[in-house]
Fold:
Amino acid sequence: MSTVVELCSVFFTYGCHPVLDEVNLQVNSGDVVGITGPNGAGKTTILKLILGQLQPQKGKVNIFGMDSMAFKERFRLGYISQNARFFNKSFPATSREVVASGRVPARGILRRLRKEDYKVVDEALDTVGMLNMSHHMVGNMSGGQQQKILLARALAAKPQLLIMDEPTAGLDVSGRHELYRILSELNSEKGVTLMLVSHDVEEVSPLLTKQVCLDRKLCFCQKKLSDTGKQSNEACSKRLAMV
Structure:
């Protein structure tokens, strides 16, 4: 089993405000990792370190065995930020055009998309159940539909690791369940490694292979249905409630 993400003794501070302190984390191929914690705990900061948008003051961050700042094959990472949603009604693009833009990291910014690229685009739309709406204007879609389009856009690059920051924000109960179903299938059928930042501890837990609680430092809570796992999950929930 290969290591996809590795954080070793990572320390990060914004000015004089420490956000992460001696954080160690390993994500293996095929994992589904949930990162939970209170506001300001450093959850989004960890994602930015993995994506190479920030550099730790101490420690190291490796992606597929390479330093995150030197890692060049960004198309292997899919990312949907918390601030990516949603499109306004005047956004001048169809859902297929939005998803097609996700092929650019894999193809190169100066290369025109080919027939095989659009085949990948349609496969991504089909994966999220939106192929029948490929020619609809994305601005006229519901929040749940737009979230699926953003997911399809990330999948269009065929990433090995998909990172999502608060993926269910703004979705109703049925929308959240549908999104988790799609993510579960991506992991089990296509082998995509997932990292999810979420406040939704209870709903996301069944999907996870590893739950990480963050508040400057990490504690791990086993998802497995053993007595130890149950106790860890309970302790994690109580800890978050007290912060």
